[in-house]
Design brief:
The chain has one domain: 3-Layer(aba) Sandwich (Rossmann fold), CATH 3.40.50.720. The chain is built from eleven helices and eight strands. Strands 3-2-1-4-5-6-7-8 form an eight-stranded mixed sheet, with helices on both faces. Strand 4, helix 7 and strand 5 form a beta-alpha-beta unit. With 259 residues, it is an alpha/beta fold.
């Protein structure tokens, strides 16, 4: 894919970045990103990626807009209450970003539909709001060899993790860090969260996605924690669990192939 004159001018500020350049911009335009969850994280990530020139976005969410969403899910308005989030977000983005092919999936991801929903995706953004869904997305991405960027925000705490077993197998997967036996109860619906806190993590997640697509130091295998009260960011380098029930077999297959 090559840029025409209009596209070159439109994305000129991005192309000026030596780390991105024309190669990175064409990579974005060729990419297909699936976003699971079009809430506080997902609707902002979708806007950033569509604006950056990502060629195709699949938006997945079976939930409907509620009035309590509006302080942090900024693409929605009160008149959207009761409508499906994925469809509303896709319609609004289509009106602004003609270069982006937008697909809205009006459903929740589950074991039965996950492979179909994530089919042909070059990257998955996990913007879901519950532990069980994150485990399912991780399982599907590992099984189908799709890299993923996982973010969460609750209270004044945010986390960001990139999983890419092809580029960084030693970093493991989400299950290595948070085994499915772990009990996680915190959710923004019960604990609370501020809009800007979600915005910070969504910006980081979108930035990480762009870096990954353009092959700019993706920081795979590294957990980032952000404390919104102290404004302190901490990084931890991860090591794969050699007995992980999710990624052990996939990493072994890759190792055998390379040998």
């Amino acid at each position: 894919m090559s840029l025409n004159d209009e596209q070159f001018i439109h994305y000129s500020r991005q192309i000026l970045l030596p780390e991105l350049g024309e190669y990175g911009q064409t990579a974005l335009m060729s990419a297909h990103v699936a976003i699971v969850g079009i809430g506080g994280l997902g609707n902002l990530c979708a806007q950033y990626l569509a604006a950056a020139g990502v060629g195709r976005l699949t938006l997945i969410d079976g939930d409907s807009v509620e009035v309590s969403n509006l302080p942090r899910q900024l693409i929605f308005a009160a008149r959207d209450s009761g409508k499906n989030k994925a469809k509303v977000c896709a319609d609004k983005l289509r009106a602004v970003y003609a270069d982006c092919d937008l697909i809205a999936a009006d459903c929740f991801i589950d074991n039965a539909n996950a492979s179909l929903l994530l089919k042909d995706a070059s990257l998955v953004l996990d913007c879901s709001d519950n532990f069980e869904t994150r485990q399912l997305i991780n399982l599907c991405c590992v099984r189908d060899s799709i890299p993923s960027v996982i973010a969460s925000a609750v209270h004044f705490s945010g986390q960001l993790l990139t999983v890419d077993l092809a580029r960084y197998p030693q970093g493991g997967c989400y299950h290595c860090l948070f085994p499915c036996e772990l009990k996680v109860s915190q959710r923004c619906s019960t604990t609370g969260v501020l809009g800007p806190m979600v915005g910070v993590m969504a910006s980081m997640q979108a930035l990480q996605a762009i870096k990954h697509i353009a092959k700019i130091t993706p920081n795979a295998g590294e957990l980032l924690r952000f404390d919104g009260l102290s404004m302190v960011t901490r990084h931890a380098t991860l090591a794969r669990d050699p007995s992980c029930a999710v990624c052990h077999t996939k990493v072994k297959e890759r190792t055998d192939e390379s040998n």
